Description:
By secondary structure, the chain is of the alpha/beta class. It is built from 16 helices and 17 strands. The protein is globular and about 70 Å long. The two termini are 34 Å apart.
Amino acid sequence: MEDYRALADVVAADIAAGRLRAGDRLPTQRRFARDRGVAVSTASRTYAELSRRGLIAGEVGRGTFVRAAPPAPGPALAEHPPNQGVDLELNFPVLDGQAELLAPALAGLLRPDALRAGLAAGGAAGTAAARQAAVATLSCEGWAPLPEQILFAGNGRQSIAAAIGALVPVGGRLGVEALTYPVARTIAARLGVDLVPLPMDGDGLLPGAVRAAGRLDAVFVQPTLHNPLGATMPVRRREQLADALADRDIPAIEDRVYSFLRDDPPPLAVFAPERTVVVDSLSKRVAPGCSLGFVVPPASRHERVSAAIRAGGWMAQTFNLEAATRWMADGVVARIQAAKRGDAARRQELVAQRLAGFAVRGDPAAYHCWWELPAQWRAETFVAAAARRGIAVTPAAAYAAGPGHAPGAVRLALATPPLEVLAGALDVLAALGRGAPGDDGTE
Length: 443
């Protein structure tokens, strides 16, 4: 049976029927090829197909295992709230009292004249007032976009889609960090763009990897509070990355969705202003239900990005744009951001206390952290064990840009549960991490 897809169907059927269970180790590809009487290359393609379907996951130094559960069909991970009782999978930072802060600005929008204007169709450039308010919201130490640079989309995902669509043709190649935002990966697939995973270290994307990657049409990068690692690229690395982009004449898409939680360093756009398209949104700054996407391209790419927003139907709705403009201009967004900085810091303090002694990486300003699990645990098995205790966490494989092995780690999203619930969940996970699979007889 030389058709790797047919072989993948056989293994998938074994998983569906329970003959292969979550956490079972698969044979090496060489052993699989020998047992099935096929070439090793066919076995390799079979495993790649099973990984693409989300049925298996490889872990460095350990092998290949059946995933805890096949992913639900449909959009990317970040669009599906889990059913578990404590959500440490998705980050929805909404603080108590936000509604009271946001409500007054909406009162003026309900007057008939204002509402009439809000019902009209909008454009990618928004309004002069919106652009000016966005400048104040997006500006940081060392960088302030020009009002005429700013374009608007419905949310951050649409901003990313517009930037990729403008810079990378169908069949083109987009460089991404080896561990990257899952929604960016899904967007690229839907736009017919091939991802090229690029190696990282503790400081982020390696500039040498950009130089050595072969043809790239653009690079998608998260220099500040990287998702999932929480790392922030230092200034020197940003300078080196800018040099690599210049040497290769490659544009970059800089995702700054979490950047409001830190004052420094300056954006990559400071070091590569003519090559960097900045994307951001209000989804984390305010709330996912009150979002607005921002795209800040350089002048040379402004029209292409604007055209991509229009062609994709990704324009911000006029009513939403006007509401967000009032929140930004009135200082409400700035007040919420300041409160969230304190909230994120308190949650990281809980992580430091409750997970002391474990290999946890996380910026003190971030709303997430990266846990390199103890040796006795595989990521998929740990996720399944946590789920049985009512806690949703995300395995490293969800962020892997390529089909290769994912590290034995999980990301913990800290923003959604109340602080006391988060503290209890971390205690449960710590006890789980100190134990071993099967200690309670359920593995």
